[in-house]
Design brief:
- The protein is α+β, with helices and mostly antiparallel strands.
- It has a single domain, classed as L-amino peptidase D-ALA esterase/amidase.
- The strands form 4 sheets. A 6-stranded mixed sheet has the order 4-3-12-11-10-9. Strands 1-2-5-6 form a 4-stranded mixed sheet.
- Helix 2 crosses helix 3 and helix 6 packs across helix 7.
- The chain starts with 34 loop residues before the first strand and ends in a 5-residue tail after the last helix.
Amino acid sequence: MSKPRLIKPRARDLSIPFQGKTGRYNSITDVKGVTVGHTTIIEGDGQLHVGRGPVRTGVTAILPRGRLNDPVFAGWSCLNGNGEMTGTTWVEESGFLSGPIMITNTHSVGVIHDAVIEWIHNQRSPDGFYSGNPWSLPVVAETYDGQLNDINGFHVKKEHAFKAIETSSPGPIAEGNVGGGTGMICHKFKGGIGTSSRAVKIGTQEYVVGVLVQANYGLRPLLTIAGAPIGQEITDLMPEEHSTQSPPSEQGSIIVVIATDAPLLPHQLKRLARRAPMGIAKVGGVGGNGSGDIFIAFSTSNPHAYSDTETTEVKMLPNELMNDLFPATVQATEEAIVNALVAAETMTGINGNRVYAIPHDRLQSALKKYNRLT
């Protein structure tokens, strides 16, 4: 099992310009209490032997309040539905998200779903951690990594989910070829996990909007970074496919997780989730037929709002004061995707299939051509 390097260049390290003020780490973990963990599985090389590899996959866990058992208000949305995010019907119905959000590959949703139920059931600490809930409907999302990974070998096990949850932490997080994003492709470059955040002042109060993406979508000619048509400037370095199957015309999909500490209720969080496609569009995503573009947003405000037996009081930001949160969501989604591209590294997987990382020097040259860098 590979241990990813945490410190990699990010988009701002290449002087790529973005709008908005970031949080301390420019990460979803800038929202206090949020923790993120990855388990990355990289094993074997060469020809595909189903069940043996090569393996290029993993799982990512996002815990809204760390391991604290305190459900958060949440809302979800979808642009194109060729994908899966379990548990969203109950999020829609109840307005609450309980437990971690997990992201993995398409054919590992079931095992991760079962693993989260088992993990929650086994937490019996009396100090406020999960305490053996009688039932669970976990949120598990996916994107497809079958161009690089032995996806039908079912290499993701419950132990990998446990590790991602238990090693989740605040602060800077790894991006690129890590966790659920290990084998993912974005605009025909190597993609994966990316994150970003925005700090927003509403009245006298500053709030944070943090975004994490698993980026696995898009066509090369549409790739746009900082307003420049990068996909039309870097037309080579296309994925190398060495199998009898034709590669899909559009690689799908993208999962976007949005966190905030602003006091939003479920219907307002759905409004936030609906803004994610605008950030995707800025990078060149169009929600093609083969793409699963699914988004979930949650708020860490209103602790202890959930109760089975008692009436609770909650705070709510007026709808009229939400306007600054919308561009923050768009901007953080855009930058999170670009961070995933910048952090990712060239990867060779099954049958020698190779997907190239976006070359930083050529990216900067193209941005200079369009006066996006000085």
